[in-house]
Amino acid sequence: MKPAGELYACLYAKEFPAQAVLRLRQELRERPVVVVEGEPPLQTVCSFNTKSRYLGIVRGMTRVELDTFPSLIVLPRSRTEEVSTHAVMLECAGAFSPRIEDRSEGSAFLCVIDIAGTEKLFGPPEVLARELLRRVQVLGVSASVAISRNFYAALSYVRGASSRIAFIAPGKEGDALAPLPLKVLDVSSEHAETFALWGIRTLGALAVLPEKELIARIGQEGRRLRQLARGEWSARSFLNQLF
Asked: Would the CA dihedral through 226, 231, 232, 236 be positive or negative?
């Protein structure tokens, strides 16, 4: 059981390199835009907005391939703007709680906010989530929020779900995570290949595997991944495993 006092809000903004360069360029937001990195002529796509995705743009496309899309706007990646946007996002999150863990990765901004005890200041979790997203939108960034009493359940859910705001009810973590793909977990390429051979593609399919047999085949990492998929993994789980 999770202690009643734990409550986390996970703030997630995907395609962060594209969002960072577009947030102060209002005139380009309604256009298909891609962000490239690398030295010419070997530049490749590292991020893009929704309108570009509708055109069929995928990460890793070359500049030559992009030239076949006449309406496309191509911008260079700006680490300076990413650092600046990252800083204001963390500052925004910090207005709701001083207890923040930055989990940003690859092309996504990701942080977990410990919001336990904030109800008197911001109201119920759903109200806090709406206000958090409103402030993030004012910054020019599109994001989503997942709230759970389990740190890792919020983290996994927000990576894979399409809803802008989600509240995972206590005891329902496994049900909420079940439809999500395995990629929302930090699965090694070796274990991902093994799961693919077994036909395991979702957290729900992983969650129902027998624990002892899973540990026998891929070790204690199998236990951790299974508990993550069930929304049961926590720092306490790790300590119990050690002692």
From this structure: positive
CATH number of the domain where residue 233 is located: 1.10.150
**Is 74 within a domain?**
yes
Total-model pTM: 0.89
Q: What is the pLDDT of residue 26?
A: 86
Please tell me the distance from the alpha carbon of residue 82 to that of residue 78, in angstroms, as a whole number.
6
Within 10 A of 98 (CB to CB), how many other CB atoms are there? 9
Range of 216's domain?
A: 182-242
Among the candidates 148, 172, 196, a domain finishes at: 172
**Are 207 and 168 found together in one domain?**
no
Q: Does the pLDDT value for residue 3 go beyond 50?
A: no
The mean pLDDT value for 44-62 works out to 96
Share of the chain above pLDDT 70, in %: 95
Closest listed residue to residue 182, CA positions, set 151, 237, 226: 226
Q: Are residues 75 and 186 in the same domain?
A: no
CATH number at 125 reads: 3.30.70.270
pLDDT above 90: residue 201: yes
How far is CA 35 from its chain centroid? 19
At residue 39, the 3 state secondary structure works out as coil
Joined tokens for residue 18: 């594209």
